[in-house]
Structures are given as structure tokens and as C-alpha cells.
């Protein structure tokens, strides 16, 4: 029996090649998308879960501040027996991260300072070295495998010395495996935490409560009650901090313990140095991949139901010969399942071919392992599920035909089947239209973020990373820049826009104030065209100055109720006197995902970067000039530069990735909807040849018939837009809530998307309509 059904199923697939090809293409394409998205989502959803103790590792933070002061970790470890270990991590962000070994100079991107417990708590395997000892010495450094290869080649680096910034000597004590892509911590090198004292030339810096620059992780024991511990911390840690800040009557926001796997999805944690992603974007990707799968299932159901009218005689004969309804249902379900398994075979081939393209699209290396249990389950079981889901209605529909009506020539099930097919086509175009509208709005939002007025001028700005070699003659270098008539302005500063991670806490008149801090020279605001709205800009500091001049932003004035900010004096770390000389208008120095926070710019020249403002249209000339000048002053260090606009665009890589994904999704969704419409129009118009012949005999023109036939399908598309518009409006509203400054809706996108979908539908059905309208009626009606 099974062999008979299998033979019959394969014969039917072969006989109806066009319908079979459409079904298989649609299912294969949608399955390929589903597999690719599943690979991506599984990787991202598993971020930081590869650590053996991931469910016991927490980061202590406050609602708006994710970094802590250095003494907090040791205090919590000593105070609470539930805390087995602590790790403080500080990003080395005030240097250009140049390492020298013999005659080789290498720049590394992600450099962290970390406590000696780092490798005991986190599951980052060491290739060389002992995890308990590699970070014990204050000059110890552990390199990633790729970094060690770049610096030392095939030599064993352990025990060797490497020069850092031409000022410090570090001893390589270990080599670690490159961190996986689904780790929120990314590092090319880990340096012992105590090295920060040497780096900052301050032996007491790790005792300060006014520098909030360190991610602080806690490893809790397995019996720890996180809620109770959080409550205890909020009672005792706040008091400990305020005592040391000499603010006993103040109050700090509550501390929270965030589980390690949740940190990747922290919405506004964009100055903690860790890698972050969007949970909502992941959810959207999952939803869209499922929707595309449903589109293909709808196609399959639609075409199978339409195709059933060609098989009524077969059903009638089988029933007459004694076939029961359950047996007929089984036969047609088997056909559906075979189609689905053929589709998954093609889908796997497509995934293998598209994996590199998709990996570059999402900027994440993905692999498809057929030995992975979940991958294998998807490949083996999803066709069974899809075959049953897509084939159930057509199977029950076709098996319900009456053999008497079939064999007597009476029409069967046409009206009911036609109504359901149109509902399914409607659902397809609602979905495709929503995706098109959403994709255009994602594109609009990304462009809006990149091009929005930030309160400063970012055009024609070149950002150059400095080097220790260059800084020996920085004044001469700057003077030569100024001498170039193509260069309008230039400024030296510590942090790049979008990555101002230095945080200072200080007290003033009984309140604790927290600032993001930029260190810069007096040309900083004029180079960026930032507007000073009160007071004046500061002058460059000289060694004899006892006071540090600072400028705060408008946000700080409003948040801390500073009624007369100009002239106010504040002490930082008890020995650093700051005087506010001006207030700058608010400008966005971080991502537009978060509101503007209090900012302080201090007149300390800490020249990690030089931002150059040049004459419009002189980009290439300026770059060539900087390259020549660099070779003159820093020939042994690599030149790294970027445009300020490109720097800021990096803040929106998640949105740019979502934009590319949706463009791909939309193309697939439109393709699936169109091949379904193409197949259905072929069937429906083919069934109406007699009606078309009669209309031509009665005087209808070919063009009139084409319009009539096209309208039968286009009206469903127009109706689908009435459903798609409100659904898209609601979804876009939900997504735009992720942004402080949303671009909003565009009525032109809705209108344009509606026209686009309608035109695509017309072009899809016009071939069959024109062919049918131009058929000679005599050929159709000669047997009537």
C-alpha cells in the first residue's frame, strides 16, 4: 500500500511540474531563511552562556551607570560570604594600544585591565599559562592566540617582554584562545588590573570613589539568594560609598545585580566597553522567519487546493474502487511530506551556498553542523511538520469529493475552494505589504540616525589616532596642520565621539554629581561647531595653573539645578580643583538610543585623537597631507584614521544589520507571494477559458478582457493593503520605541509601498491574462 502511494505521489509531482516546482521553490526558500535565522538566533541567544558559571555571575550596576568605582568589588567580597570572587575590568581607552616587539609594531583593538580571578571565574580557556597565576604580577599581560601570532609569529611568547606605548614593559604570562563571537567581552589582551596605577602614574587611583570606570562582576555561591543580597547591598554599599565621598546625608540610586547573560541585551549600556545587541531585533528576526515559512505553507495549501480540481476523476475512481476517506487523506499527506523533504534537501544546499553571504550580512561567523542535535532535528522533523500542516486542508478537501458527482461530470467544491484560496492570497499580500512598509521604515530610521543634527557639525571631520612616536613632537605636528590652507581647525582630545567612557563622580553642595568626561584642548568646541551658550571656552592649561577649567553641558545644569554654573568650583578626588568657565549647548556624544547625559569637558590635553576640520571637497587632499605628515613624524607606527561620520555610524550597526536582514526577508517574501500568485493565476485563468471565449464572442475586446482578469487579482491586493496599513503602523510604533529620537511614520512610504505591491501583482498576472484574452474563441468553444 505504501509503495503504491509513494509511486502515485511521485507520479503526481512529475505530472504537475509547474505547480510542484512552485511549491518546492517556495518551501525551499522559506526553509533556508528559517534555518539561517535559527543559526543566528541560537548563537546570539547563547551569548555568555558558554561560561561554566554563567548562572552565578552577576554585574553590579545602577540604572544609569553600569561601571563602578574600584573599591566596590573588594568591599562586596569582604562584606558578603555569598560572594565567592569579584572581577573588576577596565577598558584601556586612553591609548592607541600599540605594542612593539623587536622591529615590529602592532595595534590591538580590545585591551582590558582585569583582576587575577578573571580566568578562574570566566570560562576563557588558556592555551599557555596557569589561570590562577597569569594576572598576579602588576606587569603581566595575557594575549589572545591571534594577537600573539601577529606580534611573535610562531615563537612561544610566554616569558617574553613586549613594549606598550613605547613607555611601559609588560611580561607575557599566558596565551588565551580567541574569545567566541557570542561573548559580550571581546579582548585581544588582558593586563593585570594593578597595572592601572602605573598607566595613570597614580598609586592611589584604585582607592578613588570618584572614578566610575570599571565593570564589576561578582561570582556568587550556589546557595546565594540574589534578591536578599541585592537588598543588603543597597543598605550597606550606599552607606559605604557616601561615607567615603563625605556625603552622609545624600542618597544614591539603587544598585542591581544583572545576570551575565542579560548584559548583552542591556538597552543603554553603550559606554561599558562590552558588546551589545537588541533583544527586540532578535525577536523581529524570529517572527519574520516564521512568517516567511507560513507564506510558503499558504502557497502550498493554495496551489494544492487549486490542483485538486484536476484530480477529481482520480479521486472518484479510487473511491469507487473502495478507497476510504482516511486512505485518500494519507495518500495526499504523503505527497505533501515528500514535497517538504525534497524542499529541505534543496534548502540545506541553499544554506551552504548562502552561509558566507549571510554571515557577512549579520557580521557574525555562522556554521551549519549536521551533527548538531538541534540542526538535525530541524532538518529531519520540520519537513514532516510542514508537510502535515500544509497538506492537511488539501487532503481533507480533495477526499471529501463525492464519487457520484465527480463521475457524472458535476462540478465539485469550486466555490468553497476558490473562496479559501482568495483568503490565503489575501493573507500573503497582507504579510508581504507589512514587510515592505516595515523595511522602508527601518531604512528611513537608520538614515535618520546617521544624518540627524546632533547639535554639532560632523561633516568634513577627519579623526586621526595618535601614537607615542607622534606625541614627542605633537606641537610641531599641530602647527604644520594649521599651516595647511585646506585645514580650518584641529583639536586634540582623549575620547572619540560615541565612545566617551570616562566617568567622574564628585560632590557639590551635598549632592553627588556624575559626569561623562572628555579631556580636550581649547579648540574642541570650535572644531565641532558646538555652541557655548553661557560663559566662554577654556584656555589651554599650563603646568603652573592650579585650577582645571571645565565646560559642562546644558543637561548637567538642568539635572543638578545649577542656577549659576559659571564660576562654580568643584573638587575631584579631593585634590583636583575644577572651575566651570562655560556651558555648552547639548549635543549628542553617544548613540541616539539613549538621552543626553551630563557631560564635562576638562582642559587637559590627553591626545589620543586629533580631529581635523577641513574645507569641503578637500577630503582626499587632506588625507594625503596627513599621510605625508605622519610619515615625517611617526614613520614606525601605523596610521589609523576615519571620518567622524563613519565613527558615529558604527553606533548603529544593529540597526544597519536589521535593515540588511529586512531587505533580504522582503525579497524572499515577495518572491514567495509572487510565485504563488503566478501559479494561482495560471490555474484560475486556465479554468475560465470557456467564459473568456464566450465574452469574446459577445464582443469583449482583448484589452478589456485583460483588465477584467487582472482586476480579479488586483482587487485582492488592494484589499490586503487595507489590512496591512494598520498592522504595519502598530508594529513600526512598537519598534520606534527603542529610540529616543524616532523618525516617525512617512505617509509616502505607505502610499509608495501600496503602489509597488499593486504593480508587482499586475506584472505577475498580466502574462496569463494576456495569453488567455488573445486565445481564439473558436478553439475554446468548438466542442461546446
Explain what you see.
It is a single chain. With 784 residues, the chain is α+β, with helices and mostly antiparallel strands. The chain is 51% helix and 16% strand. Strands 1, 2, 3, 4, 5, 6, 7, 8, 9, 10, 11, 12 and 13 form a 13-stranded mixed beta sheet that branches. Strands 16, 17, 18, 19, 20, 21 and 22 form a 7-stranded mixed beta sheet that branches. Strands 15-23-14-24 form a 4-stranded antiparallel beta sheet.
Q: What are the main properties of this structure?
A:
784 residues; alpha+beta; 13-stranded mixed β-sheet; 7-stranded mixed β-sheet; 25 helices; 24 strands; 51% helix
In a nutshell, what does this entry contain?
By secondary structure, this protein is α+β, with helices and mostly antiparallel strands. It is built from 25 helices and 24 strands.
Task: Give the proportion of residues in helices.
Answer: 40-55%
Radius of gyration: 34 Å
The N- and C-terminal alpha carbons lie at a distance of 40 Å
Number of spatially distinct domains: 3
Shape: elongated
Helical element count?
25
Topology:
Elements (H helix, E strand, L loop, with lengths): L1 H14 L1 H29 L11 E5 L6 E2 L2 H8 L3 E9 L6 E4 L2 E4 L3 E4 L3 H4 L4 E3 L11 E5 H8 L8 E4 L3 E9 L12 E4 L2 H6 L11 E9 L5 H19 L11 E4 H4 L15 H30 L3 H9 L4 H38 L10 H27 L3 H5 L6 H38 L9 E5 L2 H4 L2 H10 L3 E7 L9 E6 L2 E9 L4 H5 L3 E4 L12 E6 H6 L9 E4 L3 E9 L14 E4 L6 E6 L4 H15 L7 E3 H6 L3 H35 L1 H9 L4 H35 L10 H27 L3 H5 L3
Parallel strand pairs: 6-11, 8-10, 17-22, 19-21
Antiparallel strand pairs: 1-12, 1-13, 2-12, 3-6, 3-12, 4-5, 4-9, 7-10, 8-11, 9-10, 14-23, 14-24, 15-23, 16-17, 18-21, 19-22, 20-21
Helix pairs in contact: 1-11, 2-9, 2-11, 2-21, 9-12, 9-14, 9-21, 11-12, 14-21, 14-23, 14-24, 21-24, 23-24
Amino acid at each position: 500500500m505504501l509503495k503504491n502511494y509513494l509511486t502515485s505521489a511521485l507520479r503526481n509531482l512529475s505530472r504537475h511540474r509547474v505547480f510542484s516546482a512552485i511549491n518546492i521553490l517556495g518551501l525551499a526558500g522559506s526553509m533556508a531563511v528559517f534555518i539561517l535565522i535559527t543559526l543566528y538566533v541560537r548563537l546570539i541567544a547563547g551569548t555568555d552562556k558558554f561560561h561554566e558559571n554563567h548562572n552565578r555571575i552577576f554585574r553590579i550596576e545602577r540604572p544609569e551607570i553600569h561601571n563602578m568605582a574600584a573599591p566596590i568589588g573588594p568591599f562586596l567580597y569582604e562584606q558578603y560570604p555569598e560572594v565567592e570572587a569579584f572581577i573588576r575590568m577596565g577598558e584601556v581607552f586612553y591609548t592607541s594600544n600599540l605594542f612593539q616587539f623587536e622591529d615590529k609594531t602592532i595595534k590591538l583593538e580590545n585591551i582590558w585591565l582585569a583582576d587575577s580571578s578573571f580566568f578562574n571565574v570566566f570560562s576563557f580557556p588558556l592555551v599557555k599559562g596557569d589561570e590562577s597565576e597569569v594576572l598576579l604580577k602588576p606587569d603581566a599581560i595575557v594575549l589572545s592566540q591571534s594577537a600573539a601570532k601577529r606580534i611573535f609569529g610562531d615563537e612561544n611568547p610566554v616569558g617574553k617582554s613586549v613594549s606598550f606605548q613605547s613607555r611601559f614593559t609588560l611580561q607575557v604570562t599566558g596565551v588565551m584562545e580567541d574569545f567566541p563571537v557570542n561573548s559580550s567581552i571581546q579582548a585581544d589582551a588582558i593586563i593585570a588590573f594593578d597595572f592601572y596605577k602605573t598607566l595613570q602614574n597614580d598609586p592611589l587611583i584604585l582607592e578613588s570613589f570618584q572614578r566610575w570606570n570599571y565593570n564589576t562582576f561578582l561570582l556568587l555561591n550556589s546557595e546565594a539568594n540574589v534578591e536578599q543580597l541585592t537588598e543588603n547591598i543597597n543598605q550597606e554599599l550606599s552607606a559605604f560609598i557616601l561615607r567615603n565621598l563625605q556625603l552622609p546625608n545624600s542618597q544614591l540610586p539603587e544598585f542591581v545585580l544583572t545576570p551575565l547573560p542579560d548584559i548583552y541585551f542591556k538597552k543603554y549600556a553603550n559606554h561599558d566597553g562590552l558588546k551589545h545587541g537588541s533583544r527586540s531585533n532578535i525577536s523581529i528576526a524570529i517572527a519574520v522567519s516564521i512568517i516567511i515559512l507560513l507564506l510558503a505553507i499558504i502557497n502550498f495549501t493554495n496551489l494544492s487546493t487549486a490542483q485538486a480540481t484536476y484530480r477529481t476523476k482520480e479521486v472518484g475512481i479510487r473511491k469507487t474502487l473502495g478507497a476510504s476517506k482516511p486512505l485518500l487523506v494519507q495518500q495526499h499527506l504523503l505527497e505533501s511530506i515528500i514535497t517538504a523533504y525534497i524542499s529541505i534537501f534543496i534548502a540545506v544546499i541553499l544554506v551552504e551556498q548562502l552561509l558566507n553571504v549571510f554571515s557577512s550580512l549579520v557580521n557574525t561567523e555562522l556554521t551549519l553542523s549536521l551533527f548538531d542535535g538541534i540542526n538535525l532535528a530541524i532538518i529531519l522533523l520540520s519537513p514532516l511538520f510542514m508537510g502535515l500542516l500544509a497538506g492537511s486542508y488539501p487532503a481533507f478537501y480533495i477526499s471529501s469529493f463525492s464519487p457520484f458527482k465527480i463521475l457524472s461530470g458535476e462540478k465539485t467544491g469550486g466555490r468553497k475552494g476558490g473562496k479559501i484560496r482568495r483568503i490565503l492570497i489575501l493573507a500573503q499580500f497582507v504579510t508581504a505589504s507589512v514587510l515592505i512598509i516595515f523595511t522602508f521604515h527601518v531604512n528611513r530610521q537608520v538614515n535618520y540616525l546617521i544624518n540627524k543634527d546632533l547639535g554639532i557639525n560632523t561633516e568634513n571631520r577627519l579623526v586621526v589616532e595618535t601614537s607615542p612616536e607622534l606625541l614627542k613632537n605633537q606641537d610641531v605636528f599641530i602647527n604644520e596642520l594649521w599651516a595647511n590652507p585646506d585645514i580650518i581647525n584641529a583639536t586634540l582630545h582623549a575620547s572619540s565621539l560615541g565612545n566617551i567612557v570616562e566617568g567622574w563622580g564628585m560632590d557639590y553642595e551635598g549632592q553627588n554629581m556624575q559626569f561623562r568626561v572628555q579631556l580636550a584642548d581649547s579648540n574642541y568646541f570650535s572644531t565641532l561647531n558646538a555652541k557655548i551658550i553661557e560663559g566662554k571656552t577654556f584656555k589651554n592649561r599650563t603646568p603652573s595653573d592650579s585650577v582645571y577649567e571645565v565646560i559642562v553641558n546644558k543637561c548637567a545644569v538642568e539635572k543638578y539645578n545649577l542656577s549659576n554654573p559659571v564660576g562654580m568650583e568643584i573638587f575631584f578626588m579631593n585634590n583636583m580643583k575644577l572651575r566651570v568657565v562655560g556651558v555648552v549647548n547639548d549635543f549628542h556624544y553617544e548613540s541616539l538610543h539613549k538621552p543626553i547625559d551630563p557631560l564635562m569637558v576638562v582642559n587637559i590635553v590627553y591626545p589620543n585623537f586629533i580631529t581635523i576640520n577641513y574645507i569641503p571637497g578637500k577630503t582626499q587632499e587632506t588625507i594625503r597631507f596627513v599621510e605625508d605628515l605622519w610619515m615625517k613624524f611617526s614613520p614606525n607606527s601605523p596610521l589609523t584614521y576615519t571620518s567622524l561620520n563613519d565613527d558615529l555610524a558604527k553606533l548603529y550597526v544593529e540597526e544597519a544589520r536589521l535593515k540588511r536582514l529586512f531587505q533580504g526577508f522582503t525579497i524572499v517574501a515577495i518572491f514567495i507571494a509572487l510565485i504563488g500568485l503566478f501559479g494561482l493565476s495560471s490555474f484560475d485563468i486556465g479554468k475560465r477559458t470557456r467564459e473568456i471565449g464566450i465574452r469574446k464572442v459577445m464582443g469583449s475586446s482583448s484589452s478589456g478582457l485583460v483588465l477584467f482578469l487582472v482586476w480579479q487579482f488586483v482587487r485582492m491586493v488592494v484589499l490586503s493593503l487595507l489590512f496591512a496599513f494598520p498592522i504595519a503602523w502598530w508594529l513600526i510604533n512598537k519598534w520606534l520605541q527603542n529610540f529616543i529620537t524616532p523618525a516617525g511614520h512617512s505617509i509616502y512610504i505607505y502610499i509608495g509601498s501600496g503602489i509597488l505591491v499593486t504593480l508587482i501583482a499586475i506584472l505577475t498576472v498580466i502574462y496569463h491574462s494576456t495569453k488567455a484574452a488573445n486565445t481564439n474563441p473558436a478553439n475554446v468553444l468548438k466542442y461546446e
